[in-house]
Amino acid sequence: MLELRHLRTLLALRDAGSLVEAAERVHLTQSALSHQLKDLEERLGAPLFIRKTRPVEFTRAGQRLLSLAEQVLPQFRMAERDIARMAGSEQGRLHMAIECHSCFQWLMPTVDRFRDHWPEIEVDIPSGHSFAPLQALGREQLDLVITANPVEMSGIQYIPLFRYEVMLAVARQHALAIKGHVEPQDLCDETLIIYPVEHDRLDVFTQFLEPANVSPREIRSAEMTVMMMQLVASGRGVTALPNWALAEYLSRDYVRGLSLGDGVWATLYAAVREDLLGTPWMDDFLRTARETSFEVLSGVKPA
Amino acid sequence: MLELRHLRTLLALRDAGSLVEAAERVHLTQSALSHQLKDLEERLGAPLFIRKTRPVEFTRAGQRLLSLAEQVLPQFRMAERDIARMAGSEQGRLHMAIECHSCFQWLMPTVDRFRDHWPEIEVDIPSGHSFAPLQALGREQLDLVITANPVEMSGIQYIPLFRYEVMLAVARQHALAIKGHVEPQDLCDETLIIYPVEHDRLDVFTQFLEPANVSPREIRSAEMTVMMMQLVASGRGVTALPNWALAEYLSRDYVRGLSLGDGVWATLYAAVREDLLGTPWMDDFLRTARETSFEVLSGVKPA
DNA sequence: AAGCATGATGAATGGTGCTCATGTTGAGAG
DNA sequence: CTCTCAACATGAGCACCATTCATCATGCTT
């Protein structure tokens, strides 16, 4: 009668707010969800949510099922993990590299949690692959790479982790600081500070400056986020970073953050070797990564 | 991957001890269960139980899933009950009659529990239908009848509650009391005390005496179990009763209990109006009855 | 009023979970 | 040792139903 998939659907619906997006999350069509929920409501004899509102609002019955889902689904995951551990004496390995330069704030707690669940998996972030991590992935020297720039490669799948806004950091006393957002032209007299990578892998260029055919007056690079922040704060340039990378500097009012145009958004992916996808521990890592990053970054408010 | 039906199957398997009987309990074929469990074990990558032993023995993985099932399935039931209550303002009614003369010891706790879960259902055991309860069921004056003698009737379904052994009660000093069981011939010089119903509705006759073509010397009847016990204890006759009806007298060593031949077993049924089957509260009542009777009667040891 | 997004609906389809029929295994009896 | 019986495994076929596709209805935005 009541099935696990119903619970998953309802959770997805609550998190998504609409059938269309909930459908994406559970990898089904909107139609499927509509049918599924209609059937369920008929069988239970009670409406579960109100469709007219946005985001959808749950009835008391719906809320009861949501709370059931939150009780029960974790128990299932735990059991499945336990079983997988009992089954798998297969020593797994999870060696990763990070292409995104400031992921540690959510990656470290993720790894900590994961180690708890899978003590026998060897987790490491070996240095030495920071130059060409995707190639190392292809050569099976690595198992997972965190990146914002998916590049089609055979044997590698890109799993989206979360979306974020790319924002411009400027000094507090900067002329632009009073505006809520900047236009491309605003940057033509600025010094832009970037990580030392090709321009076509930076969303400021591909999604913001190049479409408007604007170039900043000067471009200089810095390896580390702290360094960039110092330069920005002292008025020697501006830089574009993920909102969550800026978060701590914004909260300390060290720099100011501005949207790029109407907002430039990007998605962070985990590039994973296909042969590892589907193993319970890899699935669990990806889920943990999503959950943890959500928790850690959800305090991050744009601007 | 892991589904609710798997958990139900595993619980049934544990309670039944074999695939064949477990299949009955979940209303599937043995083949279905074999397939289902094989698939599951393959997907999990771990064996769940050992088939060669009888009753089957569970591996650690199997036990883990059993414990999951015991955590999770009750939570589902509770949620479904809550939802059914929210949905159903439909005042239900549960009027019952008892054809078996000593069911109160497990029926009362059952009713108590049920009332907790379904306060708005009107539960009653109206007197006045003790004569022809099944007819009253057909006339919709009753909703459920507890009986050990299913009689085919349109619109009525018989739901098995539990199996029990019919045992012979004899006085402590009775000649037969030293034996573990009696043969039909042993009764041809005895006075048999029975409830005042037709002989063909008593298993002592249909399953024990008549097949051997034996009649007791004398037959007398009594309305109440206590009365029968007094007669038996004082050596004025013997009687055949369900083991659980005898239990309290046996434990007080008031009478002795003997198996009839290799053991005569019967099943107690709930006769239910078909239109009520499938309503959540009726399903819940039947489940509660089975569980409660099991708990109450499981202390009852034969002889 | 047009355009867009969301949800509903009905028909068609494909997957899969079940049954049926049969094969295999193991235990107990003669 | 073999016969038998019960329990479980296995493969093929089938039926159901969850899902998809195509389309329609509705409401909000511009």
From TrEMBL, chains A, B:
Cross-referenced InterPro entries: LysR_HTH_N, LysR_subst-bd, MetR_PBP2, WH-like_DNA-bd_sf, WH_DNA-bd_sf
Coiled coil stretches, renumbered: none
Signal peptide location: none
Cell compartment(s), UniProt: Cytoplasm
Superkingdom as given in the UniProt entry: Bacteria
One Pfam assignment: LysR_substrate
HTH lysR-type domain segment(s): 2-59
UniProt xrefs under Gene3D superfamilies: Periplasmic binding protein-like II, Winged helix-like DNA-binding domain superfamily/Winged helix DNA-binding domain
Main location: cytoplasm
PROSITE patterns in UniProt: HTH_LYSR
Entry keyword set: Activator, Amino-acid biosynthesis, Cytoplasm, DNA-binding, Methionine biosynthesis, Repressor, Transcription, Transcription regulation
Family recorded in the similarity comment: Belongs to the LysR transcriptional regulatory family.
Name the UniProt record assigns to this protein: HTH-type transcriptional regulator MetR
